[in-house]
């Protein structure tokens, strides 16, 4: 019901700089002790992470509500279940992932006898820097990968989700090995201090501008890094698309960070739904993920039909005031992070209104910083559009519809911009999807639905080019934090063969 008991959320206090040095030393000692290598240690901490979430689900709901105004259902489905899902996979598979990987089959005959293989070794203590918009998932899914890989980890959580960050700082040492895993609270100063140190790996989630700072700092200590950045995620709507389905699916991800395709998620979702009568009222505001659709390239003969389908969908999802189900009357609607972000959205809409391009203005409540989903229709092929909505990462509840001549123009438009994190194609024919994915580059691509790639624990999650490098989730998270060491064994028994290359070279050897 959105009621916050102040006492349930610990106070946010930045970690002192001295403490950061101590944490670094402790984690290195833990790693050097070899304890984090064992399967038992990894399994224990993975399971403890699941208990941390399950035991404290209500407090986590309260913290995220306080930070971002997100409803309980949205938090469980979008933030917590993906973590449990990843823990579930890691617990089942980590033993296999840790095993040496034989490379005997592709080896030359003489090398086959040397037992060529790849040994998986933890890279060492790692640094995970996360963003505010999914404060639990963006911190703890990377942690699952680090634990599975046998790496101690420091979690530098976001200052823009202070309640979640403070709660995690309280809970983590109670559940996981406090000498192996630690939370650092704070902002730029604390991040900078952490980035001065050499790590086994750094995984950063956030904006591209800070990503450049992180990559530069990592280069100075020669630390490998993974950057999970933002950008604009386009949708392509072809002339054979079912626009009603496209609109419904698109606004579902824009309004709720979800996608419950896994057994575990469904089990939790079902049990949770039984207790949460307000679940169907939960509304987020589109700043939920950087994989949220950002703009829609619609083939021109389909534009009017698509705009109509969008309006109908928004009316049915969020009936306008004074309906008790309207956006403004929904107690668990998600808010914008701060006034500046809300003002940015309003200025997009005011500008579009002035130019006669505003199709739908979402309901606004400045006090709670809530804005309903809004639509803007730009010029054909985006011509003459500069700056603002069409060039910035929107990261909010505003979608630009850009009519295009055809699919080739849509592809050209995407390729003229930095590579997106996610790309979506709505079409009745798979061949259209295949053409778009073959001719563009993006972190992920999905045909006819939205956001599912982030929940597929068997697929790498990451960007391309400006939307980031490296990936994690599932086995890819394990691999990110694992050093793949090449191993060959050449026993003394092989000496007759090996001695052939010793100098001086005889004529017979030279002939060989
Ligand atoms: P943020 O402000 O929470 O910053 C992210 C982290 O960087 C925080 O922990 C913060 O303390 C740290 N940080 C900030 N300035 C720093 C500096 N100068 N030096 C070192 N560390 C610093 O989050 P944000 O950047 O506003 O996040 C929004 C962006 O993140 C958007 O672009 C969004 O698309 C992207 N994002 C990407 C993903 C993904 O999975 N690829 C997920 C969520 C958000």
UniProtKB/TrEMBL annotation:
The keyword S-adenosyl-L-methionine does not apply. One of its GO terms (molecular function) is aldehyde dehydrogenase (NAD+) activity. InterPro entries: Ald_DH/histidinol_DH, Ald_DH_C, Ald_DH_CS_GLU, Ald_DH_N, Aldehyde_DH_dom, Aldehyde_DH_NAD(P). Residues 17-277, 280-487 form the Aldehyde dehydrogenase domain. GO terms for cellular component: cytoplasm. Pfam families: Aldedh. Keywords: Membrane, Oxidoreductase, Transmembrane, Transmembrane helix. GO terms for biological process: aldehyde metabolic process. The active site is at residue 228. Belongs to the aldehyde dehydrogenase family. This is Aldehyde dehydrogenase domain-containing protein. It comes from Kwoniella pini CBS 10737.
């Amino acid at each position: 019901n959105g009621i916050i008991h102040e006492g349930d959320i610990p106070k946010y206090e930045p970690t002192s700089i001295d403490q950061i040095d101590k944490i670094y030393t402790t984690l290195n000692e833990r790693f050097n002790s070899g304890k984090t290598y064992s399967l038992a240690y990894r399994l224990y901490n993975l399971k403890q992470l699941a208990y941390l979430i399950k035991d404290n689900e209500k407090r986590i709901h309260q913290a995220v509500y306080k930070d971002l105004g997100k409803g309980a259902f949205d938090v469980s489905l979008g933030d917590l279940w993906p973590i449990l899902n990843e823990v579930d996979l890691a617990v089942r598979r980590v033993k296999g992932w840790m095993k040496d990987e034989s490379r005997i089959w592709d080896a030359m005959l003489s090398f086959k006898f040397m037992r060529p293989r790849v040994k998986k070794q933890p890279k060492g203590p790692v640094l995970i820097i996360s963003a505010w918009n999914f404060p639990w998932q963006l911190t703890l899914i990377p942690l699952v990968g680090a634990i599975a890989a046998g790496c101690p980890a420091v979690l530098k959580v976001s200052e823009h989700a202070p309640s979640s960050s403070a709660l995690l700082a309280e809970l983590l040492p109670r559940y996981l090995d406090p000498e192996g895993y630690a939370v650092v609270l704070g902002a730029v100063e604390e991040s900078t201090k952490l980035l001065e140190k050499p790590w086994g790996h750094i995984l950063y989630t956030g904006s591209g501008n800070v990503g450049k700072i992180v990559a530069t700092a990592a280069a100075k200590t020669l630390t490998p890094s993974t950057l999970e950045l933002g950008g604009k995620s386009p949708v392509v709507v072809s002339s054979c698309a079912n626009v009603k389905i496209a609109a419904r699916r698109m606004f579902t991800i824009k309004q709720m960070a979800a996608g419950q395709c896994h057994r575990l998620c469904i089990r939790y979702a079902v049990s949770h739904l039984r207790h949460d009568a307000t679940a169907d009222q939960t509304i987020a505001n589109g700043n939920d993920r950087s994989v949220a659709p950002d703009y829609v390239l619609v083939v021109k003969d389909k534009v009017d039909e698509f705009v109509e389908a969008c309006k109908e969908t928004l009316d049915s999802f969020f009936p306008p005031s004074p309906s008790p189900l309207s956006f403004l009357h929904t107690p668990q609607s998600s808010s914008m992070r701060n006034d500046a972000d809300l003002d940015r959205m309003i200025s997009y809409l005011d500008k579009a209104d002035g130019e006669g391009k505003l199709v739908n203005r979402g309901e606004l409540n400045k006090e709670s910083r809530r804005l309903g989903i809004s639509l803007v229709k730009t010029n054909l092929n985006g011509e003459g559009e500069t700056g603002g909505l069409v060039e910035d990462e929107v990261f909010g509840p505003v979608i630009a519809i850009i009519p295009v001549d055809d699919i080739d123009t849509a592809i050209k438009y995407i390729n003229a911009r930095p590579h997106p994190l996610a790309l979506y194609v709505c079409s009745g024919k798979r061949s259209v999807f295949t053409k778009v994915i073959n001719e563009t580059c993006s972190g992920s691509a999905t045909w006819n639905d939205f956001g599912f790639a982030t929940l597929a624990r068997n697929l790498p999650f990451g960007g391309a080019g400006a939307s980031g490098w490296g990936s994690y989730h599932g086995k890819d998270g394990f691999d990110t934090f694992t050093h793949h060491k090449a191993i060959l064994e050449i026993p003394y028994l092989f000496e007759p063969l090996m001695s052939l290359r010793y100098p001086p070279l005889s004529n017979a050897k030279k002939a060989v």
